[in-house]
């Protein structure tokens, strides 16, 4: 999914005239699309959703060890492949606070590692830590905006856009204010918002 692939739909979007946040724009556009479908668009707390997120198991906590963390932090895909495919280790690993290695890779902006975890190791994307944050929250929280990583996650599961953590924050509440215009101009205004409208009711 090239984020510019829907540029012919750009006129559907209504770029705001005032200084608004990515979350305000997102909700404005989703409400516009929703009203055409007679649907009410609402955000939902990840901690209140049942049946979508799995609780961390003792096996997953045991798998969260120094060897795995080192491979994630150094973006060592061959080492991750060896751990998973040769040693049969699960990479669906998380610490005692529910923070998974997928959360870690997203927070560091490691797209290559995230792709490996989701596409080769088949780690679940619908994960939440003890504060209710999803991997998309962490991808939005990177020090430097990572549009490619965020777009990759949104294309995988756009419903994550409306999932709130314990503090009531959506993923895009975590992008820095100084980066709002970058996210709006280089991401949201280029995006066919209908294509990322939430799928689950």
From TrEMBL:
Annotated segments matching region Disordered: 1-20
Record bears the keyword Repeat: yes
PROSITE patterns: ANK_REP_REGION, ANK_REPEAT
Domain of life according to the entry: Eukaryota
UniProt GO BP: protein K6-linked ubiquitination
Biased amino acid composition, Low complexity: 1-18
ANK repeats: 97-119, 131-165
A Pfam family this chain is assigned to: Ank_2
Alphabetized InterPro entries for the sequence: Ankyrin_rpt, Ankyrin_rpt-contain_sf
Transmembrane spans: none
GO molecular function: ubiquitin-protein transferase activity
Alphabetic keyword roster: ANK repeat, Repeat
Protein name as catalogued: Uncharacterized protein
Native organism taxonomy: Eukaryota, Sar, Stramenopiles, Ochrophyta, Bacillariophyta
């Amino acid at each position: 999914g090239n984020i510019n692939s829907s540029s012919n739909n750009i006129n559907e979007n209504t770029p705001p005239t005032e200084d608004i946040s990515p979350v305000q724009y997102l909700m404005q556009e989703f409400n516009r699309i929703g009203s055409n479908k007679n649907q009410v668009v609402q955000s939902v707390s990840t901690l209140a959703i049942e049946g979508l997120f799995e609780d961390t198991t003792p096996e997953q906590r045991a798998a969260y060890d120094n060897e795995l963390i080192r491979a994630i932090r150094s973006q060592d895909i061959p080492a991750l492949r060896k751990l998973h495919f040769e040693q049969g280790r699960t990479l669906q690993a998380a610490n005692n606070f529910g923070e998974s290695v997928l959360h870690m890779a997203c927070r560091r902006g490691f797209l290559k590692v995230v792709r490996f975890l989701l596409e080769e190791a088949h780690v679940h994307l619908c994960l939440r830590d003890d504060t209710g944050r999803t991997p998309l929250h962490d991808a939005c929280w990177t020090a430097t905006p990572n549009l490619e990583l965020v777009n990759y996650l949104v294309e995988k599961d756009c419903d994550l856009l409306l999932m709130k953590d314990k503090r009531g924050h959506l993923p895009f509440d975590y992008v820095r204010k100084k980066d709002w215009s970058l996210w709006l101009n280089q991401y949201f205004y280029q995006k066919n918002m209908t294509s990322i409208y939430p799928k689950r009711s």
